[in-house]
Amino acid sequence: MTINLSRKHDLKVGQVVRIRDTAFVTDVSVAEGGDDAGPSPHDLYDASLGACKALTVMWYATRKAIPVEDIAVEVERDSSQERAGTYGLATTLRVRGPLSDAQLKELLAVAEKCPLHKLMTTVTTTISTRMERMA
Question: Are 80 and 42 in contact (CB under 8 A)?
Answer without folding.
Answer: no
